[in-house]
User: Which sequence fits this backbone?
């Protein structure tokens, strides 16, 4: 015979609150990534032509039993700006690689710090932003809707019945003890 486990709705609140908080944290991270990307777009105003000269492989290994490993690739860009040659490695890597070695790319350069660049064609940071905000939205929605449903259930369960005895009315709190 299958055992049915009844969970107290009040204890469910803790899990749903954690779910909501984690979701909100992910949404904030996604928004921060978006904000900093927009700041880079505003700061990096000078357009130059560059080329991807290398893809730096970054290997990561899972800590689980199977020790699954994955490799992502960070492009290295070279470009000339105001008579100086620059070589900059992207801080974001992806799998598969966003670009091929030798590929020509448009690079936006910060005039005050020419080693600070923004590459409009690099969609990896936008994707990261969308993934964080999307996952956060799902978690936050589950937490919020779950809390709403549990709160309604608790509210409906609080209807106190009128309890009478031969001596008259009895307090409902005494009845439940």
Assistant:
């Amino acid at each position: 015979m299958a055992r049915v486990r009844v969970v107290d709705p009040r204890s469910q609140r803790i899990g749903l609150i954690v779910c909501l908080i984690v979701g909100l944290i992910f949404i904030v991270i996604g928004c921060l990534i978006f904000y900093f990307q927009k700041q880079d777009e505003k700061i990096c105003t000078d357009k130059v032509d560059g080329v991807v000269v290398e893809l730096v492989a970054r290997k990561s290994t899972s800590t689980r039993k199977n020790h699954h490993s994955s490799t992502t690739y960070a492009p290295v860009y070279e470009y000339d700006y105001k008579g100086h040659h620059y070589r900059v490695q992207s801080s974001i890597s992806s799998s598969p690689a966003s670009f091929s070695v030798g590929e020509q790319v448009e690079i936006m350069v910060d005039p005050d710090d020419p080693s600070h660049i923004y590459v409009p064609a690099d969609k990896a940071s936008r994707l990261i932003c969308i993934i964080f905000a999307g996952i956060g939205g799902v978690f936050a929605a589950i937490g919020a809707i779950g809390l709403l449903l549990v709160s309604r259930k608790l509210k409906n369960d609080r209807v106190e019945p009128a309890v009478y005895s031969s001596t008259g009315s009895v307090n409902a709190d005494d009845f439940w003890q």
Notes: The chain has a mean pLDDT of 85. Residues 30 and 129 are 4 Å apart (CA to CA). The chain is about 40% helix and 30% strand. Helices lie at 9-43, 124-157, 172-176.
